[in-house]
Recover the amino acids of this structure.
């Protein structure tokens, strides 16, 4: 397939070395005691993030919203939600973060607005408005107009999230709502997207994670027109804001990076085998389960029934796809996110987590740590629906969105509000982990994660720059980075062994827990062990 050349193929260099950290602002740190996290609370925690070693934080949407989808239903792209603080406070957060060497990335909900957005309220009253997709009949998937306009609109996710009109790649006289991508509505929406980005970039943010990035142009086989749109945005950024990045929520970096993105997340959905790659690592069938996913054992599981083969094959496919535009964008490997179960979910807790981080932080992808995963915060089952968290009978995102656990005090140090006023309840477990306790204990998961981040940052060959040679995809997982570092990870309960070739027998352990090698090259990995060696 021939593709148009990538604008600014090299892009800014900082994402290659980034350690991303995702924050759900509702639940991170509450400074004013209203039970909901805010910018000032987060600002006060920047010292912690710098100590941990993260280099960029991504905030899920913090804009004015009726919060029927946790802020993914934006009512005003240019104004922050009052509950987090003002635009000025967000700018202050960005400034303070930069002093700590941390960049702030916002969420760009490009494909839809809230049904309370003034653009939609106007569109629902005015048949001449084309910012949204309107049909004159009850077409499949369309929702009846709430306004004076007769007709039906096309939602993008929940019904309260009408799709912005970026046009259709294919026209059809029988479906007159399919407008070309250069019609007036789509042009106005693309201009608005740039206006939104320009405002926040001027306020000091370093880029955007783009929500449902593949959803903009409808009926777009091969994402030809969607790709044209994002490459145009990247070209604009490269010219006006060359340090800024666009990260896609797409789930398939092999496809999205050539479309113009500086990075994309491996996710439970999207990508080869419809997200099977990430599920084959982390998903143990609890918390956030879509019934359409075929059941499969995951690799990071105490019973050890999984294999790394699915993931490694998806990785190789991604590397091959990105080879013709080197450095233009990266695959991002998240521990979890606000839509997926946490690393500590169902049967996977405690000592099983460090091996997962040892893998994530020495793999050539860009790592993204979901807030609280670094201390092993657990997915909390059985919560009621909160701001649209429930997506199915076995799919409740609230369990991954509970308040950050800062200390062993009331509300885990998240907020001074009465417990029943918190955004979501704190994990009720008596042994819930917290930052203060783990910071004081150099043997804690938090310290392991911090050491692994420091190791990655001090040895570029452990990051996106070094080559990768996978030596074993069973238990233990064994791979070489940059021809120089040997990584061994055994996430199962049972010990595991592997025979190294003589040339791979390591000399020094940079970090090791339960792994040793004999001079004959036998690697002995105890249950739940990991190590990074230097050859
Ligand atoms: C993305 C977000 C998710 C949201 C949806 C609709 O998948 O990550 O939280 O509900 O888009 O905006």
């Amino acid at each position: 397939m021939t593709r148009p050349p990538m604008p600014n193929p090299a892009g800014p260099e900082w994402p290659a070395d980034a350690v991303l950290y995702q924050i759900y602002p509702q639940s991170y740190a509450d400074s004013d005691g209203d039970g909901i996290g805010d910018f000032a609370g987060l600002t006060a925690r920047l010292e912690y993030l710098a100590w941990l070693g993260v280099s960029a934080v991504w905030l899920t949407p913090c804009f004015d919203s009726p919060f029927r989808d946790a802020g993914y239903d934006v009512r005003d792209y240019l104004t922050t939600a009052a509950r987090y603080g003002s635009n000025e406070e967000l700018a202050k957060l960005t400034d303070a973060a930069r002093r700590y060497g941390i960049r702030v990335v916002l969420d760009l909900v490009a494909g839809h607005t809230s049904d309370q957005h003034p653009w939609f309220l106007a569109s629902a009253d005015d048949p001449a408005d084309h910012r949204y997709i309107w049909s004159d009949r009850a077409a499949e998937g369309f929702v009846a107009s709430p306004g004076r306009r007769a007709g039906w609109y096309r939602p993008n996710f929940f019904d309260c999230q009408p799709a912005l009109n970026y046009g259709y790649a294919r026209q059809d006289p029988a479906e007159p709502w399919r407008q070309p991508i250069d019609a007036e509505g789509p042009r106005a929406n693309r201009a608005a997207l740039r206006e939104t980005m320009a405002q926040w970039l001027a306020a000091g943010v370093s880029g955007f994670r783009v929500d449902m990035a593949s959803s903009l142009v409808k009926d777009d086989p091969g994402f030809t027109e969607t790709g044209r749109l994002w490459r145009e945005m990247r070209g604009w950024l490269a010219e006006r804001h060359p340090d800024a990045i666009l990260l896609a929520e797409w789930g398939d970096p092999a496809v999205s990076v050539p479309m113009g993105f500086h990075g994309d997340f491996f996710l439970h959905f999207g990508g080869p085998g419809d997200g099977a790659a990430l599920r084959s690592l982390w998903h143990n069938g609890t918390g956030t389960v879509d019934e359409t996913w075929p059941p499969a054992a995951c690799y990071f599981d105490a019973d050890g029934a999984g294999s790394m083969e699915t993931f490694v094959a998806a990785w190789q496919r991604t590397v091959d796809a990105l080879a013709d535009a080197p450095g233009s964008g990266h695959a991002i490997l998240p521990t979890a996110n606000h839509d997926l179960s946490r690393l500590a979910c169902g049967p996977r807790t405690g000592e099983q987590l460090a091996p997962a981080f040892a893998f994530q932080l020495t793999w050539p992808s860009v790592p993204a740590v979901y807030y609280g995963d670094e201390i092993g915060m657990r997915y909390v089952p059985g919560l009621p629906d909160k701001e649209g968290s429930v997506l199915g009978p076995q799919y409740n995102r609230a369990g991954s969105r509970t308040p950050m656990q800062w200390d062993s005090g009331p509300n885990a140090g998240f907020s001074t509000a009465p417990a029943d006023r918190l955004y979501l309840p704190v994990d009720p477990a008596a042994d819930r982990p917290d930052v203060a306790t783990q910071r004081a204990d150099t043997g804690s998961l938090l310290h392991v994660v911090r050491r692994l981040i420091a190791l990655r940052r001090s040895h570029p060959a452990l990051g996106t720059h070094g080559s990768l040679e996978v030596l074993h995809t069973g238990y233990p997982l064994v791979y070489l980075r940059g021809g120089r570092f040997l990584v061994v990870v055994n996430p199962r309960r049972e010990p595991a062994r592997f025979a190294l070739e003589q040339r791979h027998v390591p000399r020094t352990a940079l970090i090791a827990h339960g792994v040793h090698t004999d001079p004959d090259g036998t690697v002995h990995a105890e249950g739940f062990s990991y190590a990074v060696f230097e050859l």
About this structure: The chain is about 20% helix and 20% strand.
